[in-house]
Amino acid sequence: KAGVTQTPRYLIKTRGQQVTLSCSPISGHRSVSWYQQTPGQGLQFLFEYFSETQRNKGNFPGRFSGRQFSNSRSEMNVSTLELGDSALYLCASSLRGGTNSPLHFGNGTRLTVT
Amino acid sequence: AQSVTQLGSHVSVSEGALVLLRCNYSSSVPPYLFWYVQYPNQGLQLLLKYTSAATLVKGINGFEAEFKKSETSFHLTKPSAHMSDAAEYFCAVSEGNAGNNRKLIWGLGTSLAVNP
């Protein structure tokens, strides 16, 4: 079974631009969660989607948004990029979401904002 | 709100030595607790989880963790470290109502180095 695939692996953007990250979950998984990982803050939960609906949301500004498609693939969008948005963005899929089934992580997209 | 504290951002052990990575949590309800591992340039992988069954939980790669309610701890151990264990380790606790609406709160991670 193929694992969680995140594209692209690396991105370099300038302040003020917007960016879209993509995540393809494991086949059959209906939940996709997004995390921001930085050395100082660790893993911060962004949001979780289940069957195309946002089920949970972290404490990030409205510049961070996401969506999930009918095939469970998910995209995350960050608008008006700031230097502080530089981070590794991780996507994780699970069968049922929440904490009732294990999270399977992709290798992440490393975003650098200059 | 729940929180997770991992004591020691960096731990260094010799190959063959005991590995002990510390995790303390705060939770107002019976928690679900997790340990994940992240190898360089990779995503996270579940090592083990506690969900109110046995207090000693065995995971993959020879790791285990013991839930101690009185100490609000969930420390990760391995009797004998291997070079391949060098990685970042994350402890996490579930937050929210029971069922599928729980989300995870993460510790800041402990980087484990294994010396030959």
Walkthrough of the structure:
Chain A is an all-beta fold and 114 residues long. Chain A has strands at 5-7, 10-13, 19-24, 31-38, 42-50, 53-57, 64-68, 74-78, 87-94, 104-105, 109-113. In chain A, the strands form two sheets. In chain A, strands 2, 4, 5, 6, 9, 10 and 11 form a seven-stranded mixed β-sheet that branches. Chain A has a four-stranded antiparallel β-sheet with strand order 1-3-8-7, with no helix packed on it. Chain A is globular. Chain A starts with a strand and ends with a strand. The N and C termini of chain B lie far apart (41 Å). Chain B contains no helices and eleven strands. Chain B is mainly beta. Helices cover 0% and strands 55% of the residues of chain B. In chain B, strands 2, 4, 5, 9, 10 and 11 form a six-stranded mixed β-sheet that branches. Chain B is globular. The mean pLDDT of chain B is 89. The interface between A and B is medium-sized, with 25 and 25 residues.
Give structural attributes.
heterodimer, A: 114 residues, mainly beta, seven-stranded mixed beta sheet, B: 116 residues, five-stranded antiparallel beta sheet, 55% strand
Number of helices of chain B: 0
The rounded distance between the terminal residues' Cα atoms of chain A is: 37 Å
Elements of chain A, N to C (H/E)? EEEEEEEEEEE
Indicate the percent of residues in helices of chain B.
under 10%
Q: Order of helices and strands of chain B, N to C?
A: EEEEEEEEEEE
User: Beta-strand percentage of chain A?
Assistant: over 45%
Q: How many β-strands of chain B, per DSSP?
A: 11
Percentage of residues assigned to helices of chain A: under 10%
Number of helices of chain A: 0
Radius of gyration of chain B: 14 Å
List strands and helices in order, with pairings:
The complex is a heterodimer of chains A (114) and B (116).
Chain A: E1 5-7, E2 10-13, E3 19-24, E4 31-38, E5 42-50, E6 53-57, E7 64-68, E8 74-78, E9 87-94, E10 104-105, E11 109-113
Parallel strand pairs in A: 2-11
Antiparallel strand pairs in A: 1-3, 3-8, 4-5, 4-9, 5-6, 7-8, 9-10, 9-11
Chain B: E1 3-7, E2 10-14, E3 19-26, E4 33-38, E5 44-50, E6 56-58, E7 64-68, E8 73-78, E9 87-95, E10 103-106, E11 110-115
Parallel strand pairs in B: 2-11
Antiparallel strand pairs in B: 1-3, 3-8, 4-5, 4-9, 6-7, 7-8, 9-10, 9-11
